[in-house]
Amino acid sequence: MTPYYYNYSFEELYNYYQEITNAAQIPMLIYYLPQLAGKKVSVEEFQKLLEIPNVIGSKYGSTDLFTFERLMAKFPDKVFMFAHDEALALGLTLGAKGFIGSTYNVNAKATREIITAFNQNDKEKSC
């Protein structure tokens, strides 16, 4: 998780993730939640983060869906997990490879129904 209590520079965030991945030596997602970090990361900066060994993608929590689409298009080999429970159908439409949410465990049945409806091209039910 990004250290979001302080306003770190991109270089400090990059070093933070690099140190963690070097120490852990396991696949890792960058947790991107600019609403709490107080700072947006550009696509170019994201590229630098995604080039860190063991970084396999991002848990994307920003509401900037244009950037989300650009990242998925530019880095198709990376995993982008959509992190907006309330917009699950939109994440499916945008092509997210997975979802990490805070309500899916208590709303598992509804979540499954939305995903199933989407996969069956039932737009009315999935939205």
From TrEMBL:
Gene Ontology CC terms: cytosol
Record's signal peptide: none
PANTHER family: N-ACETYLNEURAMINATE LYASE (PTHR42849:SF1)
Source superkingdom: Bacteria
GO molecular function: N-acetylneuraminate lyase activity
GO biological process per UniProt: N-acetylneuraminate catabolic process
InterPro entries per record: Aldolase_TIM (IPR013785), DapA-like (IPR002220)
Protein name as annotated: Dihydrodipicolinate synthase family protein
Alphabetical UniProt keywords: Lyase
